[in-house]
């Protein structure tokens, strides 16, 4: 099975190790991975800020870059969800809308692909720790993915997954929201941090690097010794 990795902006700039873990897990599960060189930002910052013309430019580049892919997999529920928004960007251009729909139909978030396409729920990971899981907004509300991460984490040997109060609440990142609405974003991430502390977990796991950067940054700023890990890092841990 051939998989094209959509690494995302944050993945390329800040979280190369997460991308490596994604590749290693998928290769171990029998996938052949490629990294289309033409990929850029998915256009989500422009789209969320109302700049549809700029979002279309990014979308066209992404569509062209991934058009020949069999499957597109991303370590970000948020960015994967953006690719599924592409058909709506081209409502007045049927040719590009059809090409956008083809991209949307073969795009998956990392854990979603493992569980729903590969049919795997145990990747053989071992991680003896107490952890909790943050459910990111776009993965829940746009991708409608509620089960895949938990099915995989349930089968990680040694991992005790603790409940997180209001796990479905936004962490306050929201891309440009954190920049435009800084004081509100700060209150939201402080509430998230408080709930993570209340869980007694030593590790916070998530499936979106944006959320993890935001929460992890706040934990560091407040000198709270809770580790932050992308789920790919957990699934790629072996005995």
Low-confidence stretches: none
At the first level of CATH, the class of the largest domain is Alpha Beta
Shape estimate: globular
Structural class: alpha/beta
| Strand residue content | 15-25%
Write down the Rg: 18 Å
Give the rounded overall mean pLDDT: 96
Order of helices and strands: EHHEHHEHHHEHEHHEHHEHEH
Count of spatially separate domains = 2
End-to-end distance: 27 Å
Overall description:
This protein folds into two domains: 2-115, no CATH class; 121-235, Rossmann fold (3-Layer(aba) Sandwich). The chain is 51% helix and 15% strand. The chain has helices at residues 9-13, 16-28, 44-48, 52-66, 77-83, 86-89, 94-105, 110-117, 137-141, 148-154, 176-180, 182-198, 209-221, 231-235, and strands at 2-5, 32-34, 71-74, 107-109, 126-133, 157-162, 203-206, 227-230. The strands form two sheets. Strands 2-1-3-4 form a four-stranded parallel β-sheet, sandwiched between helices. The protein has a four-stranded parallel β-sheet with strand order 6-5-7-8, with helices on both faces. Strand 7 (203-206), helix 13 and strand 8 form a beta-alpha-beta unit.
